[in-house]
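Action item from last week, closing it out:
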Amino acid sequence: MGILNWRKNKKVNAEFEKVFSELKRMGEIKPSAKKTYDVLAKLDFDTSDSQCELLISEFNKIQYQSNTNSFFYFYFPIVTHILHYKPKLEKDILGYLIGPNFANGETETKELISLIQGAMEFKLSENKNYLTKESKNWILNELPKMEEQVKREVQKCWKELNE
């Protein structure tokens, strides 16, 4: 049984490293990216609240600078992986998916959900290692149930735009 678990863990670790290789590289120059990567690597359903707080704190410090599309595609695998394991963190990080798409002109809740699902298909057609299986599961099964949360994020975007 031990060898089977070892092989399974090795495969999971290899998948994780492929998906988050850009975050790991960024960690060489940004300490917050390294800390995010390290906590993300251990994330599961049993991760403590204090570790989740550390993850969100370090994640928010990354401050990836780019255009809206690159910003979205950088954060997409990270946010969806976190939300698979810790859905309660959506208030802290869902905006990383909604904000850039709002900035690109999409303001309708159902369309945003569809756009995110389409982005998954697009990126996976380019790179099968773009998302973890946990991310894919969250996008397909949980995101469609989150219309209220997406709507809330759109309202935040409108508020910020009007300030």
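Closing note: Confidence is low (pLDDT under 50) at residues 1-10.
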